[in-house]
Amino acid sequence: MASNIDIQKKCEWCGVIFTAHKTSTAYCSHRCANLAYKERVRKKRVQEFQLKFDEEVKPHSEKEFLTPTEVSAFLGVGRTSIYRYIRYGKIKAVRFDGKTLIRRSDIDKMFDYITVSEKNKPKEKVPITDFYTTAEVKENYNIQESWLYKIAKEHNIPRTFNRGKTYWSKKHIDSYFAKKAPDASITEWYSVAELQEKFGMTLSAIYTFVYKNVIPKRKEGKMVYYSKKHFDIAKGIATPEEPQYYTIPEAMEKYSLTRDQLYHYVKYHNITRIKVGKYTKILRSELDKFFEPPKIE
Question: I want to staple 32 with a disulfide (CB 3.0 to 4.6 A). Which of 13, 140, 235, 257 is the partner?
């Protein structure tokens, strides 16, 4: 039934409070509606499978000894998995007259020792309660409204509507712009005007040069600044600093090691390593010292 007034409702999928224009509206967005629909379909299929499963397995469920095929159907896992569990000793089995038999009581006992790890526990959904208005995002991060909608679409930043205003998840907005923050170790920057004056470059040439050489930049309002150190190195008027860390491929190539050998040395000789994104890097000075030839002073 349509309503002439705005109704405050709680989304049945994500729990966010939103403004509905119909009494029948149950979800805050098409995304939540689609996810809820897929969950209903999944539950229906599971229920249908369970009914079929019970009909097929129930006649064998009271047998004292089962074959791997019957155990596979009874547990709802592949027969290959059952043989793997037997090989690793997770399920006891005996060979009798060319057949592999498993005692029903051993299957029942197996579940007495299974515990759900913290890692596999389902995560509880935490409702989003802290929001920015569109005006606050524009003011805090000096961006245009069109750019805000663009990054929100690309990175699935949650939003909600209330009384004619759009509200954006504060946590997701802050997280996105934190990743875009410039490296804190960079302290000297060129403005576009300084680059034009020092190197005699046009705007188009600057943008092309920056893109090709992946030079870090930062933005303050409408002004864009580029890292002085990186620009000078790319122009050949400054010497690049020697990196403090080896990447795994660099260390393997320099010392002719396999990946397993390298990880063995790093682990058992406590050589410093760090994680940079998904990559592991090894402290150059400690690894070089470890592979120095022996000497007597």
Answer: 13
Helix axes 134-141, 145-155, angle to 10 degrees: 100
Burial environment of residue 26 by CB neighbours within 10 A (0 to 12, 13 to 18, 19 or more): middle
How many residues appear in the chain?
A: 297
Residue with tokens 């260390």: 251
Would you list the DSSP string of 102-171?
A: EEHHHHHHHGGG----TTTSPPPPPPP--EEEHHHHHHHHT--HHHHHHHHHHHT--EEEETTEEEEEHH
The whole-model pTM stands at 0.36
Tokens (6 digits) for 10:
């709680």
CA-to-CA distance for 127 and 170, rounded, in angstroms?
12
Task: Please write the tens of the pLDDT for every residue from 42-87.
Answer: 999 888 877 765 655 554 556 788 888 888 877 778 888 888 888 8
Phi, psi (degrees; rounded to nearest 5) at 45: -65, -40
Token pair for 27: 């979800």
C-alpha 95, offset from chain centre: 46
Give the Cα separation of 151 and 141 in Å (integer): 13
Contact 186, 216 (CB under 8 A): yes
Query: What backbone phi and psi angles, to 5 degrees, belong to 138?
Result: -60, -40
- Average of per-residue pLDDT across 103-123: 66
Q: Exposed, middle or buried, 169 (CB in 10 Å: 0-12/13-18/19+)?
A: buried
Q: What are phi and psi of 198, to 5 degrees?
A: -75, -40
Tell me how far the alpha carbon of residue 71 is from its chain's centroid: 36
| 8-state DSSP, 59 | G
Assigned token pair, 124: 């509880």
